[in-house]
Amino acid sequence: MSRRLVGGVLAFCLSAVLLSAAALAATIDPASSTIGFTLKTRWGQTLHGRFPRYEGEIATLADGRHQVRLHLSARDIEILDNPNYTRLTRGPGFFDAERYRSVIFVSDPYAAALMRSGGPLAGELTIRGRQQREVFTLSPATCERPAVDCDVVATGSIRRDDYGVDRWGFALSNRVRFSLRVRVQGALGT
């Protein structure tokens, strides 16, 4: 077999693999998903925040397991009904959104059944360029096709100082609680 033919066959095979991998990722639907968080002030007030802009997918891997990949825009983060806290949260003392434009989460591969049964979902969370292992908890599904016919609900708590978000300690608790309600566009592979 000639080198040119072998090269052509390899290029075709690589293209087919890449196209099939792309077809196995379901995009998170921003119109029907919400990604939020809460912070507590030292005076007992609860601040509710959200990430209005993000990109993400739930990929179906070759072995049938799934993997979540999220990129949340720190530049667009909002503290609901509070422009002053929104400005502080985007600023250098908190997310430093001008320097670190995204909060990124990539889960470990997990069995598809986890979305139905619920349980721990571990992965790597990156905030302000610092990467830490975190575990979020998925709630048991309320339907047969989670993320398609009902929300996948996940919650988790992180420590701000693990990511260098250590300013405003006199005013804000160190704990940030994340909450996600996710649906995808299209169907998930099994």
Descriptive notes:
The chain is an alpha+beta fold. It has one domain (26-185): Lipocalin, CATH 2.40.128. The protein is 17% helix and 42% strand. It has helices at 3-23, 83-90, 114-117, and strands at 25-28, 34-41, 46-50, 54-60, 66-73, 78-79, 102-107, 119-127, 130-138, 152-159, 172-182, 184-185. The chain has a twelve-stranded antiparallel β-sheet with strand order 6-3-2-11-10-9-8-7-5-4-1-12. The protein starts with a helix and ends in a 5-residue tail after the last strand.
CATH topology: Lipocalin
User: For the record, what is the CATH homologous superfamily label?
Assistant: Lipid/polyisoprenoid-binding, YceI-like
How many domain regions?
1
Can you tell me the residue ranges where pLDDT is under 50 for at least 5 consecutive residues? Answer: 4-23
Query: Per CATH, which architecture?
Result: Beta Barrel
Which structural class fits the helix and strand makeup? alpha+beta
Biggest sheet strand order reads 6-3-2-11-10-9-8-7-5-4-1-12
Number of helices: 3
Distance between the termini: 38 Å
Round the Cα radius of gyration to an integer and report it: 19 Å
Helix content bin = 10-25%
Mean pLDDT: 86
Our estimate of the beta-strand percent is 35-45%
- Per the principal axes of the C-alpha atoms, what is the gross shape? elongated
Largest sheet properties: 12 strands, antiparallel
What is the top-level CATH class?
Mainly Beta
Tags for this entry?
190 residues; elongated; twelve-stranded antiparallel beta sheet; 12 strands; alpha+beta; Lipocalin
Detail the topology: elements first, then pairings.
Layout lengths: L2 H21 L1 E4 L5 E8 L4 E5 L3 E7 L5 E8 L4 E2 L3 H8 L11 E6 L6 H4 L1 E9 L2 E9 L13 E8 L12 E11 L1 E2 L5
Antiparallel strand pairs: 1-4, 1-12, 2-3, 2-11, 3-6, 4-5, 5-7, 7-8, 8-9, 9-10, 10-11
